[in-house]
Amino acid sequence: MRVLAAMSGGVDSAVAAARAVAAGHEVVGVHLALSAKPGTLRTGARGCCTVEDSRDARRAADLLGIPFYVWDFAERFTEEVIDTFVGEYAAGRTPNPCLTCNEKIKFEALLDKAIALGFDAVCTGHYARLELVDGVPELRRSRDADKDQSYVLASLTAEQLRHSMFPLGDSLKSEVREEAGRRDLAVAEKPDSHDICFIPDGDTRSFLEDRLGRSPGKLVDAESGAVLGEHAGVHGFTVGQRKGLGIDAPAPDGRPRYVLSLEPVSGTVAVGSAEHLAVTEVDARRPIWPGRPLDGPTECVVQVRAHGGLADAVAEADDDGIRVQLRQPLRGVAPGQAIVLYRPEERGDLVLGSGLISATR
């Protein structure tokens, strides 16, 4: 097959490309320039898409003996990922930009261009297992539970998955680093990037305030309606947040307060005790099914965050989306987050589908 290897400049994508070469595929490497003003140097383990990352990707491609290109996707990344991220927070929702990037950039913009150029598949360093069974894609959790990325890949359509390769799905991260060392890849010990790549300092509130400005509103007690303080904008909060609320007076019962809900129109941020965060029902819109849609009520395990937030559940789909009844309450479930449905199986949890959370009860 002709395979386009997306090479971020990290160890995972470099080893994934190496495995594609070793499997006998005709591989071409490509680095996506996602920032109009990339930083000259990487700051520790934060951020990505720097000049250094591009150079690391090129060095890996040269060592593997494959052609290498840099494609400028900065404008589309800004529109599809950054602007969407800002808009979702302004609307009082909590988006996952990595999920949006996978969906809109790596497996829509990149894959569309790859197919147009005659490639059969896009290869990435994601940790997830993928196989075709009678032509139907089956996406499963990776062998390395700590690195599993099936959650942020669950928004991919069946057609996108048919043209995807995840060579690292059956490997542990330690094994990937060891292999990189054996292959003399310079990125073998390079730190992983983390947090949000376009907010390398990790200060999401300041990033949003720079773009949305200040929209003062009230912090209110969800039970009594008492005004507890003011804030600079609902975009500075997310459901389940405890720190940085700006409330000076302790609660009457002495227990900490958490953000329970956001109302962007009125600018109201409602806070309350932890038990009021418990959610037992979730509605999700825009369902995506890698295989077949649900056929009636289905026992499953759901995940509402990239790392954690799991519960047994019963899910059912209709024309309006997905309704999920949780068997164990979850906290900090916010509109805008993705909910991914898994079927636990002996060969690894199978992704049944996903949706974007629209309401909770």
Automatic annotation (TrEMBL):
Stored SUPFAM superfamilies: Adenine nucleotide alpha hydrolases-like
EC number: 2.8.1.13
Keywords: ATP-binding, Cytoplasm, Disulfide bond, Nucleotide-binding, RNA-binding, Transferase, tRNA processing, tRNA-binding
Binding positions (ATP): A6, M7, S8, G9, G10, V11, D12, S13, L32, G125
Chain segments carrying region Interaction with tRNA: 147-149
InterPro entries per UniProt: MnmA-like (IPR004506), MnmA-like_C (IPR046885), MnmA-like_central (IPR046884), MnmA-like_central_sf (IPR023382), Rossmann-like_a/b/a_fold (IPR014729)
Keyword Glycoprotein: no
Function: Catalyzes the 2-thiolation of uridine at the wobble position (U34) of tRNA, leading to the formation of s(2)U34.
Catalytic activity annotation: S-sulfanyl-L-cysteinyl-[protein] + uridine(34) in tRNA + AH2 + ATP = 2-thiouridine(34) in tRNA + L-cysteinyl-[protein] + A + AMP + diphosphate + H(+)
Residues the record marks as site: Interaction with tRNA: H126, Q337
Protein name: tRNA-specific 2-thiouridylase MnmA
Species whose genome carries this gene: Saccharopolyspora cebuensis
